Amino acid sequence: MISLIVAIAYHVSTALVDLIKNVTGWLPDNINEGRLDKVYWTLCVIGSLNFGYYLVCSWLYRYINIEEEMARSVNEDNEETRQEG
Fold first, then answer.
1. Labelling 10: which of 58, 64, 70, 82 has CA 20 to 30 A away?
2. Which helix (H) or strand (E) segment is 22 a member of?
3. pLDDT band at 85 (very low <50, low <70, confident <90, very high)
4. How far apart are CA 67 and CA 51, in angstroms?
5. How far is the C-alpha of 26 from the C-alpha of 31, rounded, in Å?
6. DSSP secondary-structure letter at 85?
């Protein structure tokens, strides 16, 4: 599983570098003429957006204990059958 995650991360990072290279021109063939500072700031912004998304997801997440929910539904079903009988 870890190797799959590493492989996906490698391909995503390669695609991101290619996208930045083709769209912005910040990464020319001669690295001395490039703007690596802008590339790294772009990566910082993307990382910050990802962290913000994580915070929103963690804030909205609610844990549901499946075992308690199943026990509660069984107890409710038993009470309904007692009331009918």
1. 58
2. helix 2-24
3. low
4. 32
5. 9
6. -
